[in-house]
Design goal:
8 strands, 4 domains, Rossmann fold, five-stranded parallel sheet, globular
Length: 453
């Protein structure tokens, strides 16, 4: 079977080259070679020239590699990349989709498979500060042998603040004290896809049984089931069953339960019934400690204090962007042989700094539009259609689509529960008017300037 998998690698690689672009592929993935495919564990092993390159590929392209392989070999459960002298060591296992976690029975030792949890995302590597101490301590309690005081645990924060890190940490810590426990970690989107697939395939009983056999269920990014009524109903029944059975549940989302527009009240009530733990934006001290922790594991790399201060000062929004900027700097220095200094950081990270500036929210847009047109903010959600209110509302919808990553349905919900087609009409109307109405175009430009400032 390993030979069959080896024959697939050129096709997998070609697909990656199309998806990632020739430049990125040639720089990082072209040197990668197929090493092995173990049918017992369903793990693909790849090799590259150096340990640094392997780690970089693991961090940046792990999920993409897994998805690419599954297009041709659906049985693949994970992908490992090893490099240089590290090729003979145990390679870091990339984070996988939650399929292996559906097994209710413990796997015999002779047939042990790689953990579906990312070993790098453990409690020991989670840096704790004021902004995340409640979530971190609650997560540790959830992973203890004794029954948790608060169940379910709901972790909420913006992207890249450590929610997924804590999910993997909980799973690994609980598995360490309860080796036979059935632990399922999956994204809410994956839950939805599995649910739809089971409905279409007439396999709902098996789907329900697998989920409700979990001793610990961890669902990531719950906001992606917003508006999916049938999925919410099944999730509600799953939660009820787990809670009644004394099982553990951890959920993450990018906002508190009360702000999940489009989620059924009964589901919100269940999610709010345990502990809702916010993770706030990381403070300066936390960001610096995270950088120092990373650098402590690489004593051969010299990063001056002024470069560390530069990173801390400019990447304030979330940890993921901070680590991404550091990785980019380290990779450039390693591949070019140049020393890291402040001038290099300012040159190579200029685009990252621009992207890291705080994003604008729909609420901020509505406030700015209302301030410009001297309206009450409640008019953004009202049903009134007089021109003096309808046009500013359309402008706000247009700016919401232009300046935020929110979808048409999400924007509609923030404007009084309007249909997505209403938002599309507003966006197209304003786009057309900006071409012919110079006064409106100038007003929109002024509102954008106020938002950027």
């Amino acid at each position: 079977m390993s030979g069959d998998a080896a024959a697939l690698w050129p096709r997998v690689a070609e697909g990656l080259r199309r998806d990632l672009g020739a430049r990125t592929f040639d720089h990082w993935l072209k040197p990668v070679r197929f090493a092995d495919y173990c049918t017992l564990s369903a793990v693909v092993t790849l090799e590259t020239a150096s340990r640094f390159s392997a780690n970089w590929i693991n961090d940046r392209f792990g999920e993409r590699l897994l998805l690419a392989w599954r297009q041709y070999l659906p049985a693949v459960r994970s992908v490992t990349v090893r490099g240089g002298a590290a090729a003979s060591d145990r390679a870091a296992t990339l984070a996988t989709a939650p399929l292996p976690a559906f097994d209710a029975a413990p796997v015999p030792a002779a047939q042990a498979v790689p953990s579906p949890f990312d070993a790098r995302l453990c409690f020991d590597r989670f840096v704790v500060a004021r902004s995340n101490i409640l979530a971190a301590n609650a997560a540790r309690r959830m992973a203890m042998a004794e029954a948790p005081q608060f169940n379910p645990l709901y972790l909420c924060s913006g992207t890249g603040q450590g929610k997924t890190h804590l999910l993997h940490a909980i799973a690994q810590a609980y598995a360490a004290i309860r080796p036979t426990a059935n632990i399922i970690l999956m994204s809410a989107e994956k839950f939805m896809l599995e649910f739809v697939g089971a409905m279409r395939g007439g396999d709902m009983m098996a789907f329900k049984a697998r989920l409700r056999a979990a001793d610990l269920l961890l669902l990531d990014d719950l906001q992606f089931v917003i508006g999916k009524n049938s999925t919410q109903e099944e999730l509600l029944h799953t939660i009820d069953d787990l809670m009644c059975s004394g099982k553990r549940l951890v959920v993450t989302a990018d906002r508190p339960p009360a702000m999940l527009d489009g989620v059924e009240a009964r589901l919100l009530s269940r999610l709010s019934g345990g502990l809702v733990a916010d993770i706030e934006a990381p403070e300066d001290d936390l960001r610096e400690r995270i950088i120092r922790q990373r650098l402590a594991a690489m004593p051969m790399v010299a990063v001056p204090d002024d470069v560390v201060a530069y990173l801390v000062r400019h990447f304030t929004r979330n940890i993921r962007e901070l680590e991404g900027a550091l990785n980019k700097l380290l990779a450039y220095a390693a591949l070019t042989g140049v020393d890291i200094d402040l001038a290099l950081a300012e040159d190579r990270l200029a685009e990252n700094v621009r992207s890291a500036r705080p994003r604008i929210t729909i609420d901020e847009i509505q406030r700015a539009v209302c301030a410009h047109y001297r309206l009450d903010k409640a008019e953004m959600a009202s049903k009134r259609r007089v021109r003096a209110i309808a046009r500013p509302r359309q402008v706000a919808m247009y700016l919401a689509k232009e300046l935020t990553p929110r979808s048409y349905p999400e924007i509609g919900r923030r404007f009084g529960g309007r249909d997505h087609s209403t938002v599309i009409h507003a966006v197209r109307t304003v786009e057309a008017l900006r071409v012919t109405d110079s006064e409106l175009d100038a007003e929109i430009a002024a509102i954008r300037r106020s938002l950027n400032n």
